[in-house]
Amino acid sequence: MDQTVAILLAMMRSVGKTRKLPWIGRTFDLKSAYKQFGVSESDANLLKIALKSGPDAVKLFDVLALPFGATGSVVAFLRVAASPAFIGTNGLYICWSSFFDDFTSVTPQSLAENIKFYIESMFRLIGIDFAAEGDKVPPYDRVFKSLGLQFDLSSISRGYFALGHTESRRKELLEQIETMTEGRDISVSVKELERLHGRLVWFNAFVFGRTLKAAVGVISKFSRSPSKTVKVEGPLKDALTVLKAELAKDEPVLVREAVTKTWTVFTDGAYEPDGTVKASIGGVLVNEEGLVVECFGIELDDGLREEFLADSQHPTVQETKWAAEREKACINTYAHASASQICLHNLCGQQQNSPMADPTFGSKSGPQNGAQAKT
Fold this sequence. Notes:
The structure is a single chain. By secondary structure, this protein is of the alpha+beta class. The protein folds into 3 domains: 2-33 and 72-165, Alpha-Beta Plaits, CATH 3.30.70.270; 167-254; 259-374, no CATH class. 36% of the residues lie in helices and 24% in strands. It is built from 11 helices and 17 strands. The strands form 5 sheets. A 5-stranded antiparallel sheet has the order 6-7-8-11-16. Strands 14-13-12-15-17 form a 5-stranded mixed sheet. Strands 1-5-4 form a 3-stranded antiparallel sheet. α5 (167-181) runs antiparallel to α8 (234-249). The protein starts with a helix and ends in a 12-residue tail after the last strand.
């Protein structure tokens, strides 16, 4: 997704004629992805699948194609899938990205038929089977789906486009959560929670704020329970209730051409109970040109420190959130607490009907957050 977003942003910021052209997109899907690629003869001689065929009999079967689910299959398939992506980008100048067996292409509307011909011809030339008819062959359009997300390029000529979850994906998650929370004395299997957590991690990657992230963290904790089932009560029920509310109101992100018209504050907190300075916060103010304007930091007084310690033995999260909430200007605040997997979207996106000054807009950790050096 980051690659597709980056392509569209680069187009919108270009100085050529492509900047105002109507752009459209679609996804190409490979057929029977893993089964298209064979196992080498030397490996096939070593790899067999054994099945019981009676009380005292076993049949051995050769594995001639990449077995789905095997670790080695994933690595091998990704290497193969990267090849047509590279050929298309560098040889045919196609604007696209690939994720396993899905290839997402974006193009000016006037070139759509040409690009479709190039992609399909390349797949055929190198011997890769792809979906050529049916539900998995959508036309190029301004609104298209990719990996459970929906792009809306209708407003791209005005300098922005929308990226959100498909209605079907959100509905599936809501129904799954409702099943877990309806009625009393409900128990849910750990396997169900594990599946829900995996789907929520992907969903959460495209939603701003800490509320959903915290609830997903609770699901993750219970999905690792040593027992086979857990009761839906207490923190687990609260987390599922929060997730249900957040999923119901989720809105698409608006990715804008002009990403540097707001100022950004990176904050970080430090807590060293044995140090001279026991608790402190720091910040770095970055202007719309991406330049550091000011660095600042303060030591927290005993009253605030005791208040934070009431909630945590190492209250750096409370410190950074408190620092972010002190900001009253129209800025983006990034509080150091957890790694951001979608930095590009956090920097370029804005949810509809949500204030840009939301102190929980995003988070960053690592060397990108210059505030860590000021605490």
